[in-house]
């Protein structure tokens, strides 16, 4: 219960007396009336005044007699304070930082101006944000001019860490193999960087396709966190019971990726002799090599392509 306003109304009467033929006017105090407004804050249902209980909208009178024999009348009225139309927002911050902000607003009513305090600190007059806050729980209090207090609970959350899950990828007959990963990230801008087996930066896109085996490094960064993962890309192996493997396709387009065709020896095979022969559809020899590293680029003369590939190896 809060007292909203009170004032005194004086009611005087004048009495006349004559002394030696002279008339004098003597004011006599009959009664004074005090108008007293009691305010119910939100959650309160009744107010008390001198042992009397009042509810919202009720009016009462109290008469008091002073030692001088004069009466004093108090007129009591009960009002309900409006609920402060108020709201506040927070945003997630990085773990360990102190750059949290609480912004708040209100719609001004008849009980303005307001005062605010955060976690019981010094009261502020009409300042609508708090800055430099760590993550955690806060209690914001707003008090209107009649003394009613409104409490609001707020939390400044922290942004979650980046989580990255990767897999071993296999590059085979295809020109490129997309590197897959699973990323859990808050809704923030992200920066990506892909580095090749030699450490060179290959791409800054979120998606990347590898063209050769090796260890690739993926780095992902947001405003709070940086995460790095090495992703292994291996070459596709042929059936385990074969001593060697030859891909069934290649792309001789001079892009530096799978531009030539060559045989791959199984690690368990001991090579004693090697001959790699390629013939066209008419049986003409297109390419031959006795070197395991021999690689056919798909051309001969005007670019005749073969229909048959023969490989003869001993081991």
In words, what does this structure look like?
- By secondary structure, the protein is mostly beta strands.
- It has four domains: 2-80, no CATH class; 86-156, Immunoglobulin-like, CATH 2.60.40; 163-235, Immunoglobulin-like, CATH 2.60.40; 241-315.
- It contains no helices and 27 strands.
- The protein has strands at 2-19, 22-40, 46-49, 52-55, 59-65, 71-80, 86-90, 100-106, 115-118, 124-125, 129-133, 136-143, 149-156, 163-166, 169-171, 177-178, 181-184, 191-195, 201-203, 209-210, 214-221, 226-235, 244-245, 264-265, 273-279, 285-289, 308-314.
- Strands 15-22-21-18-19 form a five-stranded mixed beta sheet, with no helix packed on it. Strands 1-2-6-5 form a four-stranded mixed beta sheet, with no helix packed on it.
- Strand 3 (46-49) and strand 4 (52-55) form a beta hairpin.
- It is rod-shaped, with a radius of gyration of 46 Å.
Q: What share of residues are in beta strands?
A: over 45%
Distance between the termini: 101 Å
* Average predicted confidence as pLDDT: 76
Overall geometry: rod-shaped
Q: Number of domains in the coordinates?
A: 4
Low-confidence parts, pLDDT < 50 over ≥5 residues?
A: 5-30, 306-311
Q: Count helical runs.
A: 0
């Amino acid at each position: 219960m809060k007292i909203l306003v009170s004032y005194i109304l004086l009611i005087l009467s004048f009495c006349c007396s004559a002394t030696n033929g002279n008339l004098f006017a003597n004011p006599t105090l009959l009664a004074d009336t005090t108008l007293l407004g009691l305010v119910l804050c939100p959650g309160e249902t009744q107010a008390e005044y001198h042992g009397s209980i009042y509810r919202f909208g009720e009016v009462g009178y109290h008469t008091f007699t002073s030692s001088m024999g004069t009466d004093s009348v108090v007129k009591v009225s009960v009002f309900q304070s409006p609920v402060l139309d108020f709201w506040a927002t927070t945003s997630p911050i990085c773990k360990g930082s102190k750059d949290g902000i609480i912004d708040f607003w209100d719609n001004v009513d008849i009980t303005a101006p307001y005062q605010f305090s955060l976690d019981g600190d010094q009261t502020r007059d009409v300042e609508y944000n708090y800055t430099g806050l760590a993550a955690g729980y806060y209690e914001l209090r707003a008090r209107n001019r009649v003394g009613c207090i409104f409490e609001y609970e707020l939390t400044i959350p922290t942004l979650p860490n980046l989580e990255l899950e990767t897999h071993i990828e296999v590059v085979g007959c295809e020109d490129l193999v997309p590197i897959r990963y699973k990323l859990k990230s808050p809704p923030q801008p992200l920066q990506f960087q892909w580095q090749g087996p030699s450490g060179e930066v290959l791409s800054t896109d979120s998606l990347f396709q590898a063209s050769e085996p090796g260890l690739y490094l993926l780095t992902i960064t947001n405003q709070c966190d940086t995460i790095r993962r090495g992703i292994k890309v291996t070459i596709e192996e042929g059936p385990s019971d074969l001593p060697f493997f030859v891909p069934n396709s290649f792309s001789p387009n001079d892009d530096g990726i799978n531009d030539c065709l060559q045989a791959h020896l199984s690690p368990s095979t001991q090579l004693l002799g090697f001959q790699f022969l390629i013939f066209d559809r008419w049986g003409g020899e297109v390419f031959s090599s006795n070197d395991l590293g021999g690689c056919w680029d798909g051309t001969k003369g005007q670019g005749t392509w073969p229909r048959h590939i023969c490989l003869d190896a001993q081991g």
